[in-house]
Amino acid sequence: MSAPALDAHTPFSIDSERLDSVRADVRTFLRAEIDAGTFVPACDSWMSGFDPEFSARLGSRGWLGVTIPEQYGGHGGSQLERVVIAEEVLAHGAPVAAHWIADRQMAPSLLNFGTEDQRQKYLPGIARGETFFAIGMSEPEAGSDLAAVRTRAVVDGDSWRLNGTKLWTTGAHLAHAMVVLARTDGEIGDRQKGLSQFVVDLPHPSVEIRPIHSIDGEAHFNEVVFHDAHLPQSALLGERGQGWTQVMSELAFERSGPERYLSTMPLLRAWVEELRRDGSSEEQQRTVGLLTARASTLRQMSQQVARELSAGGHPDVLAAMVKDLGSTFEGELVEQVRRASGVEPRFGGGRFAELLAQGVLHTPAFTLRGGTNEILRSIIGRGMGLR
Amino acid sequence: MTSHRDDIRDAVKQILAGSEPTIGAPIAHWDAQSWTNLTESGFADLGIAEESGGSGGDVTDAVDVAATIAASGVCLPIIEHGLACWVVSTTGLAKPTGTGTIGEDSSGIVAEESSGTVLLSGRISAVPWASIAQWLAVFDGHSVAVVDLAADGLVVHPGTDILGAPLCDVVMTGVVARSHAPTTVSASQVRSRGAALYSAAMAGSARAVVDATIRHTSDRTQFGRPLAKFQAVQQRLAQLASTVAQMERAVDEAAEALATDSTRAAVALASAKVVVSGAAADVAAAGHHLHGAIGFTREHPLGRYTGSLQSWRNRWGSADDWARVLASQILDDGPDLWDLITGGSDVASSDATSSDATSSDATIGARP
């Protein structure tokens, strides 16, 4: 494993002035973009706000691939700098879905497990905001029980053949590549053993991508079917049979990031703007204060995970706590703002009503994606020595 | 810094181990011996400058002492005594001997100056520990009077909180103040410090609830296996642990921000009291539920911790009170909500620890 992605040698607080200045720059940029009308702040924009041009603009300013070493087109910055940028784009509801998975997960994954060729091939594009990734983990029979994956890759001469179906694959119809967890060895009953990861370039003649229309009226998710898809030998990511370990090593990043408590922050900010303009009742003030306090504390917890990750630690339990508390908070925020505002969530009724509608429609996903909260609690329980 | 804080916590634990603590709830009698040990070793007035008669250190030390005592289940007047000594220290008056206390709201007291002495009359409600303390600090937002609790004209109407700790009404009729002087400290500063100390104490009690609950569910066997092996029990226990981790994070952030006088202090402190007071009842409920009926008995130590959580939730402002303080910082032409949370460079200075002009004075009102 290489150190750069984990940023093991950069203490968290060493450069808070630099972090402040990055934050201020990103904020200025985002405000200008909003003023120019290039995007309208939205809830859950890291999942549904797909805008390649916006991603490229972030990339050209050096705000993607922050932790990727310069030799691969990145910026050799700290994990904490990445967190600051992520916090700002999320709180402003910016359309970051196109590059989100590539920047958050694939960059560290390629740095940790990828071959030199794979790094050269994908990382510069990720840093420019031009190469987008999807992640194929869940399957029709493997949702929360990820070790039950049936997608199988078999060796065929000097290449691989892939068969199976992935489900809930966000952005696969728009991504340039997809990382797939598949069984290469053993049987389904072997569970975590015998799994491997592959990078599949898209589009691919034998990969069928069908949209899944969700209750928000959109189609961010896909069903991805591999019809005996031929993959070059070089598609294997990391070590054969080590897929489970590789996937798990990324989870602390995935689970504790600011997107686990900030998905509905644009709604709260928009409501506060309304209250500042129109005045507020005591009950509304109370709600604003309660939500602000929780968001502020969740941010402290999330940053604590980032600090521990940066120091080379493995805060899996704390990361699971952040996601359990944070994703619950995202939904409760919507409910409390709806109740205290008295506004009907709808489309075409103004920006605030629309944000509220987005929040209501997206809430069911918050506590499911990235591992259900029940799974997270069992991880916490194991960490407490209960099993 | 971390090791210094660990040292303080370890030292307090050691002192408390020096005498047999009472357990169970409600409290039958308070732990006078522990209090004597603690005061004699200088841990009762940490966070007060040495030149003012304290033991030095900053508010972080006082917070750690309060949290450690609460987590041990020993019931002591540490917070009120510390606050009273600190308020007196800001006037330049000498620190009175013996145990002091302070009420949250002294607005019902009228002071009259007559030939060099100050006479106090009126009522202060719900003063913790007034029945065992020797002196009372009366703070009116501008000055501090020290009153002997055994003085002529002063009556302590005894009572207790639901934990059984003294919570008394103090009524004064022309009581001569032992000393009296103006202070530069503001009402919001006193409230902030009180809220920080009680937040820390509640986080300490909450941690003890988690520890006791893990022990109980691991030891207690039902249906042929320990309770902790049941998924439903594990899920609730995990949620309890997450909630308490959140409380502790909030308290740490508040203590560090207060100690460094950072511009984040106002937000961090209010957030801590909102998060801690807001979750206190849930923590107590989960602890009791997972202990079953066993935790409901007088002899069981759980009652100390859950009783503390329930008794202390509203001390120095409830979750709702502090939520409104936070909201007013945002809604009354303050910085954007997100700016406030991140404490970024464009945050307007809103430091409750050094400014009396924050709106917290207006919103945390006098209690009935």
UniProtKB/TrEMBL annotation, chain A:
Cofactor: FAD
Residues annotated as domain Acyl-CoA oxidase/dehydrogenase middle: 134-228
Annotated Acyl-CoA dehydrogenase/oxidase C-terminal domain residues: 241-384
Superkingdom: Bacteria
Record's keyword terms, sorted: FAD, Flavoprotein, Oxidoreductase
SUPFAM superfamilies noted in UniProt: Acyl-CoA dehydrogenase C-terminal domain-like (SSF47203), Acyl-CoA dehydrogenase NM domain-like (SSF56645)
Keyword Oxidoreductase carried by entry: yes
All residue ranges annotated as the Acyl-CoA dehydrogenase/oxidase N-terminal domain in the record: 17-130
Family: Belongs to the acyl-CoA dehydrogenase family.
PANTHER family according to UniProt: ACYL-COA DEHYDROGENASE, ACYL-COA DEHYDROGENASE FADE34
Name used for this protein in its record: Acyl-CoA dehydrogenase family protein
Native species: Rhodococcus sovatensis
Organism classification: Bacteria, Bacillati, Actinomycetota, Actinomycetes, Mycobacteriales
Automatic annotation (TrEMBL), chain B:
UniProt KW keywords: Coiled coil, FAD, Flavoprotein, Oxidoreductase
Name used for this protein in its record: Acyl-CoA dehydrogenase family protein
InterPro entries, sorted: AcylCo_DH-like_C, AcylCo_DH/oxidase_C, AcylCoA_DH/ox_N_sf, AcylCoA_DH/oxidase_NM_dom_sf
Family the entry assigns: Belongs to the acyl-CoA dehydrogenase family.
Keyword Coiled coil assigned: yes
Coiled coil: 230-257
Native source species: Rhodococcus sovatensis
Superkingdom per UniProt: Bacteria
Positions of the Acyl-CoA dehydrogenase/oxidase C-terminal domain: 197-306
Annotated segments matching region Disordered: 345-368
Cofactor: FAD
